[in-house]
Structures are given as structure tokens and as C-alpha cells.
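Let's do one together. I've listed all components of the complex below, 762 residues spread over two lines.
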Amino acid sequence: MITIFGVPSAALFGQLLLGLINGSFYAILSLGLAVIFGLLNIINFTHGALYMMGAFVAWMLLNYLGIGYWWALLLAPLAVGFVGMLIERNYIAPLSFTNQRQSFVLIGASALGFLLLFYGLRIGPTAAFAGAAAIGVAAASVYAWKRPSQTSTVHVDHLYGLLLTFGLALIIQGLFRNEYGVSGLPYSIPSQLSGGQQIRIFDAPIMFMPNYRGWVIVASLVVCMATWFIIEKTKLGAYLRAATENPTLVGAFGVNVPLMITLTYGFGVALAAFAGVLAAPIYSVNPNMGADLIIVVFAVVVIGGMGSILGSIITGFALGLVEGLTKVFYPEASSTVIFVIMVLVLLVKPAGLFGRAS
Amino acid sequence: MRAGTLLSAVTLAAVMATAAEAQVSVKLGILNDRSGVYSDIGGEGSVVAARMAVEDARAQKIIGDDIKVDIVAADHQNKPDIGANIARQWYDQEGVDVILDVPTSSVALAISQITREKNKIFMNSGAATSDLTGAQCSPNTVHWAYDTVQLANVTGGAMVKQGGNTWFFLTADYAFGHALERDTAAVVTKAGGKVLGSVKTPFPSTDFSSFLLQAQASKAKVIGLANAGGDTVNSIKQAAEFGITQGGQSLAGMLVFVNDVKALGLKTAQGLVFSETFYWDENEQTRAWSKRMGERLNNRMPNMTNAGVYGSVLHYLKAVAAEKSKDAGKVMARMKATPTDDILFGKGSIREDGRKIHDAFLLEVKKPEESKGEWDVAKILAKVPADQVWRPLDQGGCPLVKKT
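Okay, and this is what the predicted structure of the assembly comes out as:
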């Protein structure tokens, strides 16, 4: 058998395939981040928490309602996407509003809601907190109903969005941790995809490929390509890209820019939730699962070029491969290799591999 | 009459003042992971266990009203530098006398050093490394619940006995994983087995498939998981996915907590053999205690770490009550001289090197149809007597142990 640096080539091929699978998670997550950054100019730190939420929604659907994996694959992104849209409308958008009345309604209603639920109805702290947030968001939405949404004329610094979403991520993780603990929850592979195939090249067995992992690659490739197509090749995508360049002008053509931005954010986080459902059967479903992954995904986005759709997809898969190779030749470094590459890329191309220098 | 009342009031005050002077006030610091991967293993559970120990000590008249106990808790985030800072602050400024729990071996070793420097007491039950009572032992440290040698002897020993004589390790790349691999490898080679290789995995990791395939390619009969918490859960879950156990190789979860088994689900974890020094479902007393604790902990069952905190607080308070002092030297001497006895670990003792000695269990994860409740996850295969569990006193390389 041919060996490469002491590793049999067949084994190496198997490892590359595994790298590609991990790469598909990086690709979907970084794609969502890229869409959000490209169109909203928000560095979305809640992405990891919403990925985790996707996995948890899948678990909840199964355990509380008896709804299985395939429906979860559709319902969890919808549910999390909806939560994302509420977050965008009530927390992120007001950052660039000229008056902050909606935020006062939000804060006031949340505070009253918490007092009522926690002290009045004696509900546990986690549930009371979640309930109060829901009440606050509902009140703010009612307040904002029929009032024309204020388009941002002032461009707020990225830093505010980053800090806000980082804070939200910590809160969401904390709520789930309080309720479910960190050990994790079991979620099994759907019966249609259990088992696997022995992959052979010229009759030489290479590796045992679980069917589910194959499905992960296919599903993520399809989703990534569809997203790329919508944004780069359709009329809707053209509107979106135009709104990023000049929201005022696009608004003047009668396009509802704030709505478009909200939907885009919802779509971006729905991608994260989709990845979360894909991950649920193979990784431990626990409140920290997103936090562990998100830093790597940010590195992927930076390497690919902030906001570049195709860049994030290609870099996601490519870095999965690089990481996979590192796991064979020098496993100790497999968690750092991506950051080393990030440093090198930033030194040579500060805008990232596929980014446009502004 | 009025003067009489006044006088008696003064006398009373004087009496109370003397009582206050005789009072010993101790402060217990629970330092563990409260938000990260190990927060279900230690976390709030260990704080609850410490509180219960103090309440029980009062109820059972182990300590009287002359001993005042305060409990504080902090999150070391599994980082040695953060843990060390908190420990220094606790000892120097906040008057903490004992630090308890401290999972994550790297943090535990750091705290052990600081405790020795400050001449306080460190009672560990969360960390695994046997170095705490070996090469890096300290006169101020007690290691309560479990350690890597015990895990290696009980789980590793059982696997070798079943014919698993070739091993490959997946090792978490830090102090704990290295110690666990070293101690298990020693048990395997001593029994005539062979270690074919190992791979050091970054901590924490999510995807172990690549490492598992390397283990599979080694053709070892046993894949030893020298990791813990989420790492163990992910590796077992993915080993099932890649058909590794169906292929004839068996997994040895070297450190598995009941919480991990529950996270895996019995369907995935069934048949897995592991070792604990405390299992909630052992007998009437442990069940009652665990139920009491579960009521305060979102219905979670305690594990051996939580139990260890309970046992160590109780034993510490006994020693303080007997000495009527919290002087570290006196209390440590008293703790080592007095045999330990509590409802969770039974009778035991603390050795010269700080190792707490008690029996250990060999457990097996139940099949889904055998389980009668959410937390009914394992059955006890054997209770291994203490003399076969721990590293012999003279083999740890602890400088405190006098050579004969």
C-alpha cells in the first residue's frame, strides 16, 4: 500500500472525507454569518447560541411533541428564524434608531413581566426570565405595529452590534444551561439514515462511512448552493445587495428595506438552526455546543473575507479539510491550525481570501 | 428591681461575649466549574452538597452552636490562572479556610500548591489526577472521591480480565488525560497487555471521528477513552455511529459520570463498563440522600464528586469540632488520625499522602428495557474492596511518605 508521510493513503482519504463533513458545518454556519454581515453589517455573535437553539428545538419537538427528525429539519429553522427576527426588530434595529421609545417599552414591559411572573405567579427564575423576555418583545412589537420603521441613516459602529449580540448569546446560553444542565441530551440518528457503507477504492476498504454523515455533506452543499444562487443570481438577491449599498435609495424605489433586513437576519439564523439540527444526532446536544464552535466559525469567516458568500462556503469546506489533515499528522494542533491560517491570511490579504478591499 | 434587670443583662452580655470568643468560625470555599463542560459534574451540585453536609452536621450534633460555618462559591472556568487568582484572593482577603471540589486536574494541582504556600486546607473531590497524592502531594491536601489510579485499576482491570489485552488511547491533551493514560497503561502492561498507541485530542473537542478511525486502524481490542464530560459523550456517540463497537472493538470509558450516561441515552451507552466510588442507587441511605439533593437541584441526581464534597465537609467539621480550632496543621492531623465514616462512602480513612481510602464500584450501563426511571442508568457489577483500588502508599513517589 502506498503511504504518505507514514500514513497509508487509503486512511488519509478517509480522513479527508471526515474533514469535509466537519467543513460542511463550518460552511453553513459561516455562510449565515456572511449573509448577515454582508447585508446588515452586524457581526452576529448570537450565531452559536442560535445554532445550539436549533439542536435544542429538535430535541424539544421530539420529547415534548413527538415530532421526529425530518419535521424538525424544517420546523426548527422556522422557529429559530422567527426568534431571530424578533431579536433583530427589538434589539438590533433600535441601535440605529433616532428615538428609543420602542426600547423603553421593551425594557419596561420585560421588567414588569418578570416581577409579575417571578413574584406574582411564583414561576421558576429561568422560565420567568424567558417569559418576561417574551412579554417585553410582544409589547414592543405591539408598540411598533403600524408605526413606520425607522431606517438607519446613521451607520452605527460594528462594535455595538457585536457587544449586543455577544450579550444576548450569553443570556440565551445561560437560560438553557439553567434549565437543562451542560451534560447534554440524547438525540438519535433517524432510522432511515442509520447504518453505513463500506467505502472501497479498487476493492481496498478505506473507511466505514455512516449514512448520516453522507447526508450531512449533501444537505449542506444543497443549502449552501441554494443560498449563493438566491443572493447572487436572483432579483431578490439583487435588491438585498442594493439595499446594503444604499438603503435610502432602494427605499425610495418603494422597497421595504427594514422588512428585508429583518427577513435576511431571520434567514441567516435559520441557517444556523439548520446546522444545529444536522448536528444534534452526532454531537452532544448541550448549551455550550455553539460557544465551542463559533470562534472557529468566525475565523473561517475572516479567512474567507467578511461578507463574501462564496468565500465563506469554500473556506468552510477547505478549512474542514485542513483540520482533518492536522488530526492525522499532528492531532495536538488540530484546534489551533485554523487560527494559524487566519493569522497568515490576514498578514498577506487583510480583507480575506475572497473579500474586497474597501 | 430595675437595677437587678440591668445587672443580669450585663452578666448575660458578658457570658455571650465569652461564648463568642470561644466560637470557631470557618469559611468553606467551593471552587469549581459553574458554567463550562464540567459544571454538571461539580457546579451547583457540589455547593448544595456542602450545604447539606453543614445542615446534617448540625442536626446530628457533630458541630454545636459554637462553630459557625460560611460557604462561598466561585467559577474557575477550568483555567489554572483564574482558579489560582480566586484561591489567593480567598485565602488572603476573604478568610477562606478550606477550598473544596476543584475539578480539572490542571487547576487542582495549582490550587494544591497555593494551599500549601498559605498553609490552609484543600479537599479535592472533582479532579482525577493521581499526582495530587503522588509526586506533587502536599501535607495540606486531601484527595477524596476518585483518582486516575482507581479508575485504571477498576475499569482497566475489568477490561483486561475480559480479554482486552491490546489498547489504544484517545487522550484529552492536558494534565488529567495524560495522568489517566499513564495510570491505565500501567495497569494494562502489568497484566501482560500491550498499548498499541494513543492520540492526544485537543480539549474540548466536538468531532472525534477522525481519532476514532485512527483507533480503529490500530486494531486494538480496547479503545480507552482517557477523557471526561462532553469529550467522552461525543466520543462514545460517534463510536456507535462509525460502527466501531459492532466491529469487535470495545470502548473503555475511563472516567464516566452518571450525568454522561444520561446525556448519551441508554440506547447508545448500554453495556458500557465504568467505575465510580459513589452511585446514588446503592442502598436505602444513598437513595434517600440523593433524593433530598435532587429536590434542590432541578431533580438531577448527584455523582461521586458531589458526594465527595459532602463527605469531606462532614469529616472536616468533625475534626474542627474535636480540635475546637481551625488551625490547618491540627485539623489535618486530626482528619488523618480519625477514620472516616459517612452514609455515602461508608467507612474509610485518609492516608499519609492525602489519599482518601474507600471501596469503589464497577458499574455497567443498563439496557433501555432494564431501566425503571430517568436516572436508573446503571447496575453495580462489583464492589471492589479498597485494598485493590488505590495505588499502594509506597509507589506514588510522594515525598511525605517516609521510606522504610
